[in-house]
Every structure is written in C-alpha cells, then in structure tokens.
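As described in the Methods, two query proteins were run sequentially through the folding procedure within a single session, without resetting any intermediate state between them. The first query and its resulting structure tokens are shown here.
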Amino acid sequence: MRKKSLRERPSLRPVGARALKSAMDTLRPHLAGAKILDLFAGQGRFSYAALTEGASFACLVEKHPQTAKELNSLRPKKLASFQISEVLCQDAWKFLAHPTGDLYDIIFADPPFDDWTPLIEKELFKHLLNFSKPGTILLVKYPAEMLISSEHPGFSMWKINHFGESQLAYFIYGES
C-alpha cells in the first residue's frame, strides 16, 4: 500500500495561500537573516516561504513521523542555498516543555484546531517565553470562531488578520 504524501493527508491544514502571502508581506522587513521556529509544522509552508524571503534558519517541529520524514527529504532540494535547517520529529508540546536555550526571531505556531482552548493558548504563550528574546515576533494561527487574548505576559498584540476559517494573530515579545 502506498503511503499518502503530505498533500493527501486531510488532517493537515496548511496555512492557506492568502494567509501565507499576507504573513510574508507583513514580516518581510524582519526576515533577513531571521531564525525561525515553526511549531506544529505540517507541510512546512511557513518556514519555506520565510527562508525564500531571506530567513537564514528554520527549525520545524512536527510530530507525525511520515510528515517529518517527508519534510527532511524536501530539505536538500528546497533549502540548498540556505543554512541547513532542522526538522524535529517530536510533539511540539514536548519540545516546548524542554527548552534548549535557543532563541528565535520569528515563531509560527499552528496548533491543531481541535485542540484549541483558552487553556492551550495560555500554555502556549507560557512556554514560548523560553524561546523568545526582545523583539521576537510570534504568529499564532487559530480557528476563526475562537477569540485570542491580547493579555499574555511578555507579549504585546500587534495585529490580527482574518482568513476564512482561521485567523493569524501577531505578537511581539518584550515590547509594550
């Protein structure tokens, strides 16, 4: 039996083309040389777009072994001209619970919509403190029917963009 490719897995909700273009347009002034953390990476579309726009490194965290394997197989082809990026086959929550000391310029988090709750949101922001430095930009993709709090210690809301079933919320760490 043939394994399904990244594009054939209905459980993956890749960031849509409109949302991705909007994110890259917003982030373009911040991407040159940026170090990216892509949590719940799925197809890795956000990281690959950021690298194409000038980011120098991306760490993709994806728990599904087949998806992570496919991301790793794409790495040499798609990222040949960039600093080698990392694909970790690990649950994003476990990754967040064990900080490595690495700090990132831009963090993209796209937790599964079925898991999205105010408690999950609070936990996400709490853990992201360990991966952020002053000026870190955080993008969170979440279901359109949910509200996201603008009150997270250390983070200031920058803006929210709406895209059909999802929204992208932008935060900046260490600025008020």
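Immediately afterward, the second query was submitted; its sequence and tokens are:
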Amino acid sequence: MNEQTAPERVARALRDELLDGAHPVGTRFREEDLAERFDVGRHTIRAGLRLLVERGLVIHERNRGAVVAPLSRRRIDEVFDYRKVLELGALRMALDAGADLGPVLAEVDRLEELARQQPDPPWRELTKAHSAIHRAIVAAAGNQHLLDGYERCEDEVRLLLTFVRPDFDAARLAAVHRDLVKKLQQGGEAAEDALTEDIDHTGRAALLTALRRAEESARLLGR
C-alpha cells in the first residue's frame, strides 16, 4: 500500500470528521488554524483542501476559501439524479447479464451485523456500510467506468446523509436494505422499482424533509 502524502493525511482526517457530521454547514476551514493543528505548512493544507473539493465535501468560495456547503434542493437533485441514472443503469446491465447479486446480499448482512453489535454506531461507519451496498450493486454490472463514476460521488452522498441522521438508525437502515435486496433478487421491474424507491424515497425524500426542517429552524431564528 502506498504511503499517504501529507496533503492526503490532512484530507483524510478532515474527511472523517465531515462524514461524522462534526463540521456544520457554513464552517470555514482556515488555513492558518489547520496548519497549526496538523503542524504542516499552509501549502500542504491548501493541497489537502483541494482534495476535499474534488470529492464534493467542501466548496471553494472566493475570499473565504474552503467552506462546508449548505444543503439545497439543487444539490440534492443533482446528486440523486446522478445516482439514479448510474445505479439503475448498472442494475439493468447486471440483471440482463444474469450477474451474481451475492456481493450485494453480503454487504446487507454486514450492515445488519453492525446494527446488532452497535445499535448506535458512529455515523461514518453506518454510511460506509450503506455505501458498500450500493457500490456492490454498481459493481455487479462488471463495468469499471460505472464503478469509477459511483466512487466519484460516494463521499458526497455520505456527507449528504449526515443531514438525515435524526431520522435513521442502524436497525431501520438495515431493514430497508434487507427489503431492497430481496426485491433485487426477484429481478425485472420489481428490482428496478425497488432501487428507484430506495434512491428517491429513502434517500432524496428524506433529505428534502431535512432541508425543510433546516429552513424552518432558520426562519424561526430569523436568519
């Protein structure tokens, strides 16, 4: 395994914190503060932050630098439309080829085991297990370009899911995906409809609910 560079180490540490929901929207990552924290130069911090921008975890704002982007309807739709096209396309290819969906089932088993062992696991671990299920669906198509495409949005999806943390726990997420994999194994329209429902309802709709909740809170606070 290749040793991580200093910017990669910085990016990895901040990524883990972001995926745990440790940095709320609007948080600005100040280069000078991070340089002191990680005991590296500001050029290293700048390079690490660029890696986070590339992964969709932060955005770069003029005169402000790297900032945790707010939730928005446009952002939710762009990410979940991308997922829908990618995952449904991969699923159709996998079903047409009679691909083995055993790896998807194995990842659901791992999610259920995590829920049994830790009723309230670290959120980052829960979204990692969730992501592995959907990556296995894409991988079943046997197309590396599709898998690369999924991996490009993977971290951003996991970051967005931090907003639905009040609405999901490990047991509920495991139950939802156990039902999903059963329908995937049926094949045909049942499989496609189940995956569409998972992306649009379990994912997109839950995020839109979280967005409305945040907007209402901001309105009450007069922001």
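DSSP finds nine helices and three strands in the chain. We note this only descriptively and draw no conclusion about the first query from it.
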